[in-house]
Amino acid sequence: MIKIHDLGANDSVFNQIMAELRDAVIQLDRMRFRRNLERIGEIMAYEISKTFEYEEEEVTTPLGVKEIRTMKEQPVVATILRAGLPFHNGMISMLDHADSAFIAAYRKYDKNEEDSEIRVEYYSSPSLDDRVLILCDPLLATGESIVKTLQGLLEDEEPKQIHIAVAVASQDGLDYVKQAMSLKPVTIWVGGIDEELTARAYVVPGMGDVGDLAYGEKRSS
Question: Which residues contact 199 (CB under 8 A, 6 or more apart)?
């Protein structure tokens, strides 16, 4: 059964960062927008780390030895290019010994820009067998790109835990992922859930085109 953790459901400084991330005026500061994505990634990495396995480790200090419970193993943190890069940077700044995986995926529209499909063209990933996998992507709209990405990553691979981390998700997208990945050990971590998903796969109120806001407008594909 898929679990969903809505980190925005409880009052904390996390929601202040989410407010800035969505704010159309604050978004004009591109560097601050990227930094807010990183901060969301840092907090989510911390929350996800509470689910890991830990063991005792002896740490030698200048004055003695202290036993501290540390992570038993390191996860694999994956992201979808290009919008996911700041989010990924935030996660690995907390999980600094983690391995990383990168995926190139995009939505391709037909000539009339009415129908579209998700195309995944590139994977770079370590082995995921018996590992903890975290797939981070700032926006979950229809859920198709995350599902296609996971299906590609999991071909002939079997992680023991799968975490999906997103800043903003549509309810329709969450429902799609829950149905498509129902047989996998998946936990979804989300900063905010929006009810509206348009025919063009825009989440409303959402936060806009994350890749464009972080790195500049791209050429139409």
Answer: none
